[in-house]
Amino acid sequence: MNGEEFRLVSGDYTASIVQRGGALRQLTFQGRDLVVPFDAAAPIPDYRGIIAAPWPNRIADGSYRHDGAVLHLPLNEPARRTALHGLVIDQLWTLQACSADTLSLGCELGDSPGYPFRLSLQLDYRLAAAGLHITVTAVNTGERAAPYGVCPHPYLLPGPAPLDEWTLELPAESFMEVTGDRLLPLGTRAVAGHEFDFRTPRTIGATEIDHAFTDIAFDGDGTARMAVRDPSGTGVGMSWDRSCPWLQVHTADKPAPMPNRLGLAVEPMTCPPDAFNSGRDLVRLEPGSVHEAQWSIFAA
């Protein structure tokens, strides 16, 4: 179903990755899940753990203009009429190298009617004492400049309590407002005075989030960090570099009888939703050029 599964071990951490979507299936610290896992023998639910490329989030109507040409992508989110999470979410990534605590997978994107560009993607997982470190490297192997973006899609799990009781710390000054029906961008606004202000850690409560945050605080080393904690005292955090000036956060709200608010999706993104149309922070990957994005997940 999801291809081969690879298990990494380092100290108190273990990680399991499958070929399908290059997805992180499970990550544990001292036996405790840090992400919501999924069954390796079943379809991946809710895009858990996948790598979204060559764009994160969604493109309105699957349509965009690039260098004067209008291109049309398949709509894999028909209810919202969008192209969601890129073109490699269902591909089996190819094993390049594997050791006790490292894994490298590759994926080739060839010309297609909606994305007539050629990219070579490499996904590196490295498990260490400080947690799981992930790097995605994209190389334009074609002859045309390509629009590009990337993000991961883990659902963080800080502990056993319900999500409403978790405490979120999120160092972002602004968020992107979206339409209620299709979750398409309207514009950014400050978090100050809004229910999405988690710059000071506080309980999530009943707040429903499926929004991109920006104006993120990076430290002197160019690293940003967020954390979510359980009332029991356990927690999980993520860090990422300046290649990702956006962070999608989703409280995984589902209508009954579907499982609701099982984890907190946290997705460092190189660009915001619908960037293929807005051009905002969109990477223009010239022939032969390379783009790299990095993020980490760790016990907090």
What would you note in describing this structure?
The mean pLDDT is 98. A hairpin with a 5-residue loop joins strand 22 (223-229) and strand 23. A 9-stranded antiparallel beta sheet has the order 10-11-12-13-27-23-22-17-20, with no helix packed on it. A 6-stranded antiparallel beta sheet has the order 16-25-24-21-18-19, with no helix packed on it. A 4-stranded antiparallel beta sheet has the order 1-2-3-4, with no helix packed on it. The protein has 300 residues and is mainly β. The two termini are 33 Å apart. The chain is 1% helix and 46% strand. It has one helix spanning 275-278; strands spanning 5-10, 13-18, 24-29, 32-33, 51-52, 58-60, 63-66, 69-72, 82-84, 94-98, 102-109, 119-128, 131-140, 146-148, 151-152, 155-156, 167-169, 172-178, 185-190, 202-203, 210-216, 223-229, 235-241, 246-250, 264-269, 283-285, 290-299. It contains 1 helix and 27 strands.
Which key phrases capture this entry?
300 residues, nine-stranded antiparallel β-sheet, 1 helix, 1% helix, globular
N-to-C terminal Cα separation, in Å?
Answer: 33 Å
Question: So what's the overall shape?
Answer: globular
Range of helix content: under 10%
Strands in their spatial order, largest beta sheet: 10-11-12-13-27-23-22-17-20
- Return residue spans where pLDDT drops below 50 for at least 5 consecutive residues: none
Give, in order, the helices and strands. EEEEEEEEEEEEEEEEEEEEEEEEEHEE
Number of helices: 1
Portion of residues in beta strands equals over 45%
* Strands, total number: 27
Taking the sheet with the most strands, its summary is:
9 strands, antiparallel
Give the overall average pLDDT. Answer: 98
Q: What structural class results from the helix and strand content? A: mainly beta
Radius of gyration: 18 Å
